[in-house]
Specification:
17% strand, 7-stranded mixed beta sheet, 13 strands, 16 helices
């Protein structure tokens, strides 16, 4: 991908979501040496409007050969180097929908641009030094954010809050490496190496690296979210619980057992964490073919869920059917929901397994929903991963590179303790620096870049 970028080709893509009869504005974006030339060929700006950077022109997009008006539009000019890619960038802001933007894009391609690859605008911004690799990945995180906290975390990465501590650690490693290599080359002309001070520096760096690595789980939660399955026998209030929790009527609720025949999904946000809630069919033995399929899907949902909400009817207590279901889900992360507490007599005390978190609810009366959300957060790493814990969080790629850096730094510390020659120090110091450089992009291979940016949408 980067070889083509070095050829300074002009790229074009639709940069906004398009769908029939939706979206008031559709954007076609170009970036490259001929972007302004293509815009001048296709866009007619009446009057004496100035074609200057960071101006918006009003006019129409026209077919250059026939003069046919394709759409009434605005043209946004952002010329090099004051643009996202540090190249000439122009954007046609057309009417929304499918046809206008597709016709404008086709004219751009016929005028000499080529269709951009996924993430290529952001890749050009990285290769041209506009952003580092952590900021580039944060762009994708902003687009895909599923909660306000995930969006804030991604914005922090885009603002450089992740890159800053990584660069600080890398800078200290470079300083130590320079000092060690100087002793190797000019040992007789320099004072003895302060091994104790360097060992302390390595220990301090390892503490910082460990702190940054601790954000990986939080980042994965905020990006991917939790999958939560509500399971239990029929008619214990699973669908009522989903409706009360989601404040909607996503699931059909009746007094008849077996009403839910398939998995019903709802997406919520709990403590800044996206939660995919699955209301499953009641698990029981049945001769109904359709219900059998629903029961089997319920079992699969429970097996794949990050957390199971095992729901009981407080008026019936712990039944043989509950015991059978519990044996199937007991090895999963579990919260026991004791529902219909408003109808249960005071003397009803169902058997409860030991060491299981319990939440009492009355879904029909919206009682216990806040307690349920607190219990879910408590189940996530003991409740320590919440929305306010950090300004940023690393992703899986960054965590893998940072883990390699930590291993190299630990080896340096061991090398110092073993009083091995200085040449051994430099090997692992270089390994740590290379791993840290991979996070921000100072050292990165084209294959890694392709893997990162292939996950972007076209036009970003």
């Amino acid at each position: 991908m980067s070889d083509r970028i070095l050829q300074a080709e002009t790229i074009a893509a639709i940069a906004s979501a398009i769908a029939p009869e939706s979206g008031s504005i559709g954007i076609v974006r170009l970036s490259g040496q001929t972007a302004l030339e293509i815009a001048r060929r296709l866009f007619f700006a009446p009057g004496k409007q100035q074609w200057e950077t960071h101006r918006i022109l009003y006019g129409s997009v026209r077919e250059p050969q026939t003069g046919e008006v394709i759409d009434e539009a605005l043209l946004l000019l952002m010329l090099s180097p004051r643009s996202f890619t540090r190249e000439d960038v122009v954007e046609f802001h057309c009417h929304g929908g499918i046809i206008p933007v597709q016709r404008v894009l086709q004219l751009c391609l016929e005028a000499g641009a080529r269709l951009a690859q996924p993430g290529e605008f952001t890749l050009r911004a990285f290769l041209n030094g506009r952003i580092d690799l952590t900021q580039a990945e944060s762009v994708a995180d902003i687009v895909s954010a599923r909660s306000p906290q995930a969006s804030r975390m991604a914005l922090a990465g885009l603002q450089g809050k992740l890159a800053q501590p990584i660069r600080e650690v890398r800078g200290i490693c470079l300083d130590i490496l320079a000092e060690v290599e100087a002793r190797i080359d000019f040992e007789e002309d320099l004072p003895p190496l302060r091994e104790a001070a360097i060992a302390q520096n390595i220990a301090d760096i390892l503490d910082k690296v460990t702190d940054i690595l601790a954000t990986a789980d939080r980042g994965e939660l905020l990006r991917s979210g939790l999958k939560v399955a509500i399971v239990g026998r029929p008619n214990v209030g699973k669908s009522s619980l989903l409706n009360a929790w989601s404040r909607s009527d996503r699931a059909i609720v009746t007094d008849l057992p077996g009403t839910t025949r398939d998995v019903v999904e709802s997406n919520l946000v709990v403590g800044g964490i996206p939660v995919q809630v699955l209301d499953t069919a009641g698990i029981r033995e049945t001769a109904d073919t359709v219900e059998k399929i629903g029961v089997e899907r319920s079992r699969r949902a429970a097996e794949s869920a990050d957390l199971v909400l095992f729901t009981l009817d407080a008026t019936a207590g712990w039944t043989a059917e509950d015991e059978e279901i519990y044996q199937q889900v007991r090895d999963r992360p579990l919260i026991l929901i004791l529902n219909k507490i408003d109808l249960a007599p005071d003397s009803t005390t169902p058997f409860i397994p030991k060491n299981v978190q319990i939440v009492k609810t009355s879904a029909a009366n919206n009682i216990g929903i806040e307690a349920l959300e607190r219990a879910i957060l408590n189940s996530v790493r003991g409740g320590t991963i919440t929305a306010a814990n950090a300004d940023f969080a690393i992703n899986q790629r960054q965590a893998a590179a940072l883990t390699r850096a930590r291993m190299s730094l630990e080896q340096v510390r061991q090398t110092i303790c073993d009083r091995l020659p200085l040449d051994f120090w430099t090997i692992d110091l270089r390994g740590a620096i290379a791993a840290l450089s991979e996070i921000t992009g100072e050292e990165i291979t084209e294959s890694v870049l392709d893997r990162i940016f292939s996950r972007f949408c076209i036009g970003k």
